[in-house]
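Hey,
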Amino acid sequence: MDGANVTVLPMAKELIMKLIRTLLILLVVSIYFTACSDPTAVGAELLQDDRADIGYTDTFTVQAAYTALGKPQKIYSGFSSGRSLTNYLLGNFNDPVFGRSQSILNLQLLSFSGSPGFINNNSIDSAILLLPYSFLTDYGIVDETYGFDVHQLDEILDEDESYYSDYEAMFMPETIGAYSAVPNTDTTAFIRYNGTEADTINIPHLRVPIELSVIEEFLTQYEQDSTFFSNDSLFLANFSGIQLRPTTENNGLLSFDFFNSDVAAVVAGLYVFYQDTASEVRSSQFIFSSQETARFPQYQHNYSGSLAEPYIRDLSADAPDSLLFVQGMSGTEVRVQLPEMEEIKGFAINKAELEFYVREFPEDSNYAPVNILAAATKDSDESLIVIDDLQIPLDRGLSVGAVYGGTPIKQNDGTQKYIINVTEHLQQVLDGEIDNEITLIPFGKISNAQRIVLYGANHPDYSIQLRVTYTRL
């Protein structure tokens, strides 16, 4: 018992001392915060001054916002990094809000083999143009009859040059193929031949029969020069490529993928089916080479009689700004002029957001809104480049929706709006590095047919909002 008492007593004293020290610390902290809450306490005025330098406002007024005709887009670049679009649009789209938009495709082909099997005087059965369908990037109503003709190009495109979306490539008047059907967007089987082996590929695609006279002309050229198929320059000099021209007016646009999936990259092209000397079916392929051929769409927009027409400043001197029209391809763009904000120059922008409300029309039910509303600025050659607030998450592989925003948000009252982060961009404007105008476009505009109508800067209920949180440096 005595030993036990000797052991416990020091422990008890140690616990008591720890409690006393804790109480003293709490007492000091309490006295400190009590003094800090007293406006006469030393340093209180400085603390309050610091707090005053942190602010938030949503009262900045966007100076102006208006709809402008889109400028021709660089649609193909001779530099390898810019050669392939994500998808290729085709059709003559009669949009109930934006008017008519047409996309014509110009495509060069090369022989996959320097010595295709059908050159050995074998029996040619058919020629088929196979176009892998991109059902994720078509637009509008696609379950209706679409038609287009295939023509031969009447000029040699230069794969090392750049082409813009308004370039009108010359073509021969005769058709060498035609398509007219309701596109089947389901995955379907296509059988080609690798040597003597049948190769079945399952992919959503369209098939267009091509006149055999084209292949017969290939054979004629081969008889004159046996390097016809192996010499790309010689081949293109005699067969410049093909042009796909819409023949129907539709409520949407088709979209094709020639390069951006592993399957599409090896399947797209022109197939010649023939019988070998043993009467076995074989095939040879001509491909859309991603590095050695030019291919691009030509866009045409006609706003005559559309709902958008009177709002486009380039078409009307008295164009109202209550509605704003954003369109893909080479269509309309929205120019937004940010306020001067002289009162916060010299401040650091902690966060800045632009908010746009969507004006919806009954006709919009068949047309998805712009999935990412991109804010862009002009570079030295007047080309549009997205602002850093969007480019940074793209470069870093971050979620664009989480970092930049720009996606449609459904509100409880049924309205939709876009909120985009412009923090870095606004800081650059305040620092005098760039001007105060941004352009709104669909992300991936040059191969994107999406469009949206927004309320303008001066709308009484749904005006453009700029919300800024800032701190004095």
